Amino acid sequence: MLSFVLVPLLVLLPVFAKPFARDLQVHESRANAPSGYAYTSPASPDALLSLRLALVQSDPAGLVDALYDVSTPENANYGNHLSKEEVEAFVAPTAESVTAVKTWLNDNDISSNVISPAGDWLSIQVPVSKANDLLGAQYSVFTHAGTQKQTIRTLSYSIPTDLLGHLDFVHPTISFPDPNGTPPLVGFPQVPERRSILNDTAGPCANTSGITPACLQSLYSLPTTPATHGSAIAVAGYVGQWPQRADLMTFLEDARPDMSPSTTYNLVTLDGGIDPQNGSAGIEANLDIQYTVGLATDAPVTFISVGGGSDVTDFTDALLDTAIYMIGLEDPPQVMTTSYGIDEYTVSEKLAYNLCNTYAQLGARGVSILFASGDGGVSGGHYPADGCTTFLPTFPSGCPYVTSVGGTVDIPQTAVNFSGGGFSNYWARPSFQSLTVPNYLASYGSEPTDAGLYNASGRGFPDVAAYAVDFAIVVEGAVIPVSGTSCASPTFASVVALVNDALLAAGRPALGWLNPWLYAEGWQGLTDITTGNNFACSNFTTGFETAVGWDPVTGLGTPDYARLLTVLGL
Q: Which positions bind Ca(2+) (predicted)?
């Protein structure tokens, strides 16, 4: 017979077998999966999830204030970029937040690893069953109809109420991956009534079947002399893309005979990224490397090969890991270019804000971050065959701390119709656009067909543009033409790297975050593009027109190296 003392103790034993339940509060949710994805089934309870926990940063607003302080030309601190330690002090979580989150994990027998220099990101691994219990979630399998690729996500999750103010968000949860990636367009895209390419021009661009470094050097007054003062470029490569050194050598022999054909790139691999030199070139990677190495003469170029292959991996994971790698460097390259993006609405706001804040960290340290604006006009990364029903801004182009690069075509240059552009639904109009964007909207007016399709109070993009059509690249020994804003971003990045080299030679700091300078002064070193539109969507009838000054097709315009130096007093 059990004594009356032991009975209540035994009753309590099951309760102590696991932690006390905590009150949960819905933290993020979305009504439906993004377009193209459909619910398939509940995720297997035993499937292992690699989750990332973002802790609330101590002073992100202070970081942004410091970023503007060192990036705005009229400020006394302009160019006095922050150190790695100074930036980390703004984003490091408080000791209270670290303790609160780790106590919650420990109570649930979950170990964690710190994955960011400032300690604001943790990683954990848990089975679906535990993640569902921990987060009040319903992780499920979703299938993308176009590719039949599958991913495990939840449409809603919660966090304990006592972690509000300590745990910023959990990922991956409601952000969905891009199943397609964003490769450049091989051959010529659908641009209506296009003239024969460059056949009415003079000089290096005359009568050519494709764009070459010599043509771009002529078009943008770029020097051919070597960079000698440490101006460097990072090129980010994703979705199973890697360049081939043999193709680069052939490209330089053909397109830059004045350079050593053995000029090559440095390599960094992240997340299982690879660099097989077996002839299996990635078109995007070859494009980016051949035109950064081929334009920014002798500037050190680093290719960051980020793993993931062709499976449905979260592009935002790759972006985050690339940014974390960069902020962990004592002396990161002064320019980073990325020719990939994703539709903004597929990324949760909290994740988008955090990633954008990571680019702010890099900008505060003197790094210029450039992203291609997208190849879908106003319909996101690529224009759909069935047109579009709303304007889709791209990410990270909507982040104000990156410089978004649109595209042009023909000489004289005009906007290419696939040039991604528009207005963010996540970020409000930044102060550096307080004059230019209202001026555009006042002249553009409100087209009846566009009513309600875009957020006129949002951050406008792109910021600048460059040529984006029929770049001649070498792939597996053969020359092919490729097009897209993925051509424009490495081109503009190369111009920035050459400008930086001139600044460093004069004993001055690199440009860093470009946007406040571009909108205040740098626009005088750009060529304003005033013809064309980005009507690639809806049978070439919907989108934005170019205009005098900034517009959401070509931004402030295309670069002119010599004029940019003049603006900088060099």
A: 528-529, 549, 551
560 assigned binding-site residue? no
Q: Within this chain, do residues 150 and 189 fall inside the same structural domain, yes or no?
A: no
Q: Which of 379, 483, 486, 538 is catalytic?
A: 486
One domain for residues 114 and 253: no
pLDDT for residue 5: 36
φ and ψ of 502, to 5 deg: -65, -40
Residue 288 known to be catalytic: yes
Whether residues 100 and 229 share a domain: the answer is no
**Domain of 309?**
185-567
Identify whether 344 is part of a domain: yes
Please check whether residues 218 and 146 belong to one and the same domain.
no
Count of Cβ atoms closer than 10 Å to residue 396 Cβ: 27
> What is the distance between the alpha carbons of residues 510 and 368, in angstroms, rounded to a whole number?
9
List pLDDT tens digits, range 251-292.
999 999 999 999 999 999 998 888 889 877 789 999 999 999
Whether residue 241 sits in one domain with residue 123: no
Question: Does some domain include residue 75?
Answer: no
* Cβ contact 461:436 at 8 Å: no
Quick: pLDDT tens for 536-549: 776 666 789 999 99
Q: Could you tell me whether strands 167-171 and 368-372 are parallel, antiparallel, or unpaired per DSSP bridges?
A: unpaired
The residue type of 556 is L
Give the Cβ contact number of residue 38 at 10 Å: 11
User: In a 10 Å sphere around its CB, with 0-12 CB exposed, 13-18 middle and 19+ buried, how is residue 133 labelled?
Assistant: middle
Burial of 246 per CB tally in 10 Å (0-12, 13-18, 19+): middle
Question: Does residue 3 sit within a domain?
Answer: no
Q: What do you get for the CA distance between the two ends of the chain, in Å?
A: 95
Would you call 310 a catalytic residue per the annotation? no
247 marked ligand binding residue:
no
> What token pair was written down for 49?
């999830």
Does 468 fall in a domain? yes
Catalytic residue among 88, 178, 247, 284: 284
- Chain segment 407-451, per-residue pLDDT in tens: 999 889 999 999 999 999 999 999 999 999 999 998 876 554 676
* N residues, the chain: 570
- Among residues 431, 298, 461, 469, the alpha carbon closest in space to that of 369 is found at 461
List the catalytic residue out of 168, 288, 343, 375: 288
Count of structural domains within the chain: 2
